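Q: Could you write out the predicted structure for this multi-component system? I'm mainly interested in how the pieces pack against one another.
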Amino acid sequence: MELLLNRYRNLTVLLVVIGAQLLLLAYQVKSNQDVRLVRVWAVTAVTPLARILEVVRRNTIGVAEDYFDLVNVRDENNQVKKELGRLKMENQFLKTELQTADRAQALQVFQSRTPSRTIAARIIGNGTGTNSKDVLIDRGSGSGVRRGMAVVTPDGIVGKVLASYPTASQVLLITDPSFAAGVISEKNHIHGTLKGTGQSKCKIDYVQNEERVDVGEAFYTSGEDRVFPKGLPVGTATVVRPGQTFKEIYVVPSGSQNGLEEVLVVLEGVHQDIPDAPAAASNDIYIMPPPKAKDGTAAAPDLPGSNLSTDADRLRERYKRIGEAQGHAFGEGRPGNFNLNPDEAKPPAAVPGQPSRSQPSGGQPSGGHQGAVSPLSPSTPAAGARPSITPKPGTAIVVPSDKPASPKITPKPVKPVTAPESTASPSNP
Amino acid sequence: MNEFSDRLLTEVQRKTRIFKFRPLTIVLVPLAAILFQVYVPHFFPYLRYLELPLLVTVYFGLMRRQPIAGLLFGAGIGLAQDSLSAANQPLGMFGIVKTLVGYFAASISMRFDVDNPLIQFVLGFFFFFFHQFFYWVLSRALLGQQIDFDPQQTFVLGLLNAAVAVPLFMLLDKMKE
């Protein structure tokens, strides 16, 4: 060391002197923050070293620590993955349970509102046939289920019981090709027969081409098959086109759209009303005014209470008056003079003690003004009177109205398919 | 032997060419230079650019031919100049710069024949430029002062100081023992 200092003595002295003056300078000078320069230099000189040491420590010791941490993280990650998988399965299970509860609640609500007596059942299996559409439910003859009973959901009909076993029953779905049921359309109450096609859609047969069925029109059970009570939803028409003899109508069953898990077996069906069609689709039919008489005179005014709304009515009234003027009774003896003007002819003197046979009953005038329907007025005719003719094709105009066109159908009890079941409460599906 | 090699001194020549000064001279000459730097520009502003303490430092460094002596001499003159400078000017700036100037001047004098006036002119110009530039660097680096450095002006002032250095060195040569 001494040799080194002697060899570089000049340089050493230079560095010492420079260093001493730097220290002197640093001791005097303060930075802008009123900190002595020596402190600034010290911090500036130390902090990079500390930063380097920190980087080295982080990249060496930190990596080692991270490695040991990662070893634990790997195990923890595996546990978390297992836990996540378990929670996913549990979540899926709870979702399924929730959906099941929703369906059960819907079934219960439907069960409480429908007048038919039903029993809830769960589908436990499918049929084994290739083309057959049948399922097994967990209700059998022990629960009162008999062959031929209807199987429905709150959304619509599902099928009918094909066979009943003690603990289970086989249900033929409406999509099976051998299934058939009577249906009726919602708007015009067109009757038809629902048939399965083996596909997801069903066909409605035996609807005349002249009948009017619109796409989107709903169909309900008509109750004519004595299996399904009247008024249960069947489906919505998606295809309507004219066929060779009958219309080709395809409907999407509404009862099995959301999947089949829980169903209701109708133990004792009660007919219901067909729901009203939407107001915009209802039409009222009004009759054109009658044509004028051949003699140029205006047609008899159709006053309320008049039933002479057609030429036939007026002709019949004319002959009646001619007969009264000649004292002739139609159907007896020879016919009288039909060319006689009834207004000019006077009736013969009545025989005392013999009432006139042509006297109108009820004391009503014999004129043709009674019971006539106003030609253009859609007002209802007089009480008890009804139009005596039917409108000819081409003479009827269709005017939309809010009045529903379909008559109300009151529920009619049908003959129960099976014996009354006392346990109408639904099973817990 | 060419002219350049003739200017290179051998070890024997270097040791035999060391000049000595009287102590009073060593004290008074720098003091006079500093006083000139402090008071004369007050009356003659154009003489403000004359850096006599620097030229004295260079001269004593060249004549002593000992780096330690040269740097100590430069440090002393520089600290004295710092002490007499403005109150906001910290001590050590001129000291550091002139320490290096004295060191390098003594080191150069060991290699070259610095008695030649032309070399003295060149060395005067070089050390003035080095002094000004290194002072500017230290001011920016250590003190953070934003002062300007004009190379052209420094170049011209270097020539003027070098022109003054030659007769000054001849005058100071008279004070040798």
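A: Regarding packing and overall arrangement: The longest strand of chain A covers residues 117-126.
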